[in-house]
Sequence to fold (357 residues):
Amino acid sequence: MGNRILFINSSLGNGGSERVMTLLANEFSRRNYQVDMLIQNNVKESYPLDENINRIFFDSHNARGFKYVFSWVKKIRRTMKAGSYNVVISFMMRNNVLALLANIGLKNQIIVSERCDPRRIEDYGILFKAGERLLYPLAKKIVLQTEEVKNYYGKSIRKNATVIPNPINQSIQCEADKKRRRTVFVAVGRLHEQKNYPMLLRAFSLFSKEIEGYTLEIFGQGPLLEKLQSLCHELNIEDKVLFKGYVNNVHEYMRTATAFVMTSNYEGISNAMLESLGMGLPTICTDCPVGGAKMMIKPNINGILIPVGNEEACASAMLKVVRDEKFAAKLCREAVKIRNEYSISTIANMWQEIIDF
Fold:
């Protein structure tokens, strides 16, 4: 059967790569491709998946370490051999390396996609970084999110690389013409060092010394919750900061907020940032590697870029959004224009060009 695609990812749970893969899989299913998804971890699904998409789950039989990796590679290889796929699309470096390894001796067309900062060896491990250098040149195409990421790689990888940004979830409501109802700043993302929430808390503390009556809502789970709560106590803002955990309807909280703030040390393209722009929310982001924020945000036109780690600049941006209503309204009007440029249809067309080679 023609037009068959296999997607490979770690889970269908809450995460940026999972969200993008789900949007793409649903779109290609609507375009009459037969879509299978090979999922490493059978966790609760966070994003709706078209009923016509076949889920294939990996059972590790409680294997650990090298045995687990070997079993996952074997599952990938068996699935690729059984499926007669036109193309196999893998997301995230570890899966990409293992998918290319599993394909040795087979003739599947493999497209791999890197979704974050490939320079951070500590996030991937030396062995996987070595596998990246050796195996990425075997991919038919390498999809990257920004030109900054593309320029990181050597010629052997760069020659087959293409830049395709994330799509915006078109189901989110556009709020550009509606008056905000809540005196709240929102942040969305796992409680991890990458997101630099301590900077955000310190910035909000500075903001709160200038303007009363605002709160900060942080949506996400992670290992730093207790440390961040302790910092709130130290800054005397514990009654103004709400750690909301993971919620399915985060857009309902975002769309009525004063502004969205992202203080990451590094990001690919943040889906939360894209969706904030797409719903017409004043958006404040660090100008962090690997260039996803500056790719989407035109400073002081459709959003605000601030230096990484600069809490004073973050606080200043928050104050400007609150104090200058005309400026905030302009950000909203300009931000929603991104909806058409990065619609799922537009982004899927870019993927289809490299799928139908």
Summary: The first strand starts at residue 4 and ends at 9. The radius of gyration is 21 Å. The CA atoms of residues 13 and 45 lie 5 Å apart. The chain has 16 helices and 13 strands.
